[in-house]
Specification:
Elements: E1 5-12, H1 22-31, E2 39-47, H2 49-60, E3 68-72, E4 84-91, H3 92-102, H4 106-121, H5 129-145
Parallel strand pairs: 1-2, 2-4
Antiparallel strand pairs: 3-4
Helix pairs in contact: 1-4, 3-4, 4-5
């Protein structure tokens, strides 16, 4: 079976040793790409707190750096057979801090945020409870297929 084509450009605006490799990012992004999408072109940028805060303020009106921002090429619904275009921005210090606070492996948290962002690019959202449930279920399934634990599992300890 032919895999859908993903062109992923990874930009490190921070020390690349602080983040996963391009190969890892590509695997995680591809795993979240719906099979009905023939092709996708995505830029993934890893940023510091200053750039993360600036982008979040400019595009969401929030004066803080967040873990992941997703930018779609346009707001049109996806059409089967048409390419998917978009950008993901991950703030390395925020991702690292969250992973530590949540007791998660750093690569697992990065993988989850890439999967999460890729699903947003494809039109998934978590504003309404039913949408959140669907998106979280899909994220969990993809993460487990990648060999990571359920990102939403509550620590029973």
């Amino acid at each position: 079976m032919a895999r859908n084509k993903l062109v992923l450009s990874v930009q490190y605006a921070v020390d690349s040793n602080l983040a996963p490799s391009r190969k890892q990012f590509r695997e995680w992004a591809h795993s979240a790409l719906d099979k009905s999408i023939n092709a996708a072109e995505v830029t993934l940028r890893i940023v510091d707190v200053d750039e993360g805060r600036e982008l979040n303020a400019q595009y969401r009106g929030k004066d803080y750096a967040t873990n992941v921002l997703t930018f779609t090429f346009d707001d049109s619904p996806l059409v089967e057979g048409m390419p998917l275009y978009g950008d993901l921005v991950l703030c390395a210090p925020v991702v690292a801090k969250e992973a530590q606070e949540q007791g998660k492996a750093l690569d697992a948290h990065y993988a989850h945020l890439v999967v999460h962002g890729m699903l947003h690019l494809q039109g998934y959202d978590h504003i309404e409870d039913d949408e959140a449930e669907e998106m979280e279920s899909l994220e969990t399934q993809i993460m487990q297929q990648l060999g990571f634990p359920d990102p939403y599992a509550k620590d029973e300890a």
